Amino acid sequence: MLIDSHAHLDFPEFDSDRDAVISAAIAKGIEFIVNIGSSLESSQNSVELSRKYSSIYAAVGVHPHEADKFDDNVCEAIAKLAGEKKVVAIGEIGLDFYKNYSGRENQIALFRALLKVAKNIALPVVIHTREAQIETLDIIREYMPLRAVVHCFSGDVQFLNKCLDLGFFISFTCNITYKKAQNLREMLKLTPIDRLMLETDCPYLSPEGFRGKRNDPSFVKLLAEEAARIKGISFEEVERATTANVRSLFRF
Ligand SMILES: [Zn+2]
Known about the structure:
Blueprint: E1 2-7, H1 18-27, E2 30-36, H2 40-52, E3 56-60, H3 72-81, E4 87-96, H4 104-121, E5 125-130, H5 133-141, E6 148-150, H6 157-165, E7 169-172, H7 182-190, E8 196-198, H8 220-231, H9 235-250
Parallel strand pairs: 1-2, 2-3, 3-4, 4-5, 5-6, 6-7, 7-8
Helix pairs in contact: 2-3, 8-9
The structure holds zinc ion.
């Protein structure tokens, strides 16, 4: 059985058929889905989904895009939600200097605040980082030891090795199937099997052949097949290792 380690099933793209999407994923062999918070509201909804569906676990956090709207009350509310039974991580959190939807100073303040929450409650973190790799690792180092996954990995071998040296897991999305993603496939190949995680980041990043359409957790199967092909190992080996890795990081 596989796990989608990063999904956004609370998003409005799933409002009309959420139940059906979840049942279809389970039927395809996706045993668990970790639904990731991107704002306070999304984190609350993520927790609601984890209460409703036995196959869903939740992460709570505030995406760097939302940093301009972040304050102490939001931080307190996230810390409170983090104590809920099926909350397995703080995330997604990090820095996004590519889109810069929020100011950099605010992004850094938000990132620090939620790293502190994660540390206090001893939960792992789900890291989003784009065009901010050095800054992200510099900040996170201040809070070590921390357990973490770098979600939707993009970057070069230097960044990969730094993340591995810190003991982090590395998670890849369906964008490894894109024709131009040779570098990403190379990074997946270099990621040790005991650090590899798979995610859809749905509704975003549908695999090649389905681009422009909505992504959903059932595509983790295709992702695992692709990972097996890239690494030159069996599907079963990818399945066994990635599922064990997710369960070891998120402890469920
Ligand atoms: Zn995400």
